[in-house]
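Review form for a predicted model. The reviewer records the input and the model, then writes brief findings.
Reviewer: anonymous (R2)
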Amino acid sequence: MAAPLASIEQLTARLGYRLDEAERVMAEAALADASALVRAYGLPWPRADTAPAVVVSVVLAVAERRVRNPEGYRAESQGGYQYQLPASAPTGVGLTDAEIRLLRAEAGGGGVYSVPIERLGGTL
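Model under review:
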């Protein structure tokens, strides 16, 4: 498996707090998972130091979501307190449509496509 495209130190800086050992293990796994997904939608980007900044940013955003909300809860309540994320809010390690578009653009994907059309037995 290729190395993550972002470091645990970069993720910790985004989180704004120090991770204990169990959280650190989960965060490293989240970075590895996010990097694998980013590579699947973009390019192989073999090393973090050569990956474009937007790619690293997407990896960190996805991993941060996973670390902050590992169970993927959308709502919680306790007594009079209630908190709910919108149904459209991303959770877990999945990529949002916007993140996928960013990765494909960075990889040179998108743009104009040519699709052959068949009609009456021949290609137009």
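Findings: The chain has a mean pLDDT of 88.
Further findings: Residues 8-123 form one domain.
Recommendation: see findings above.
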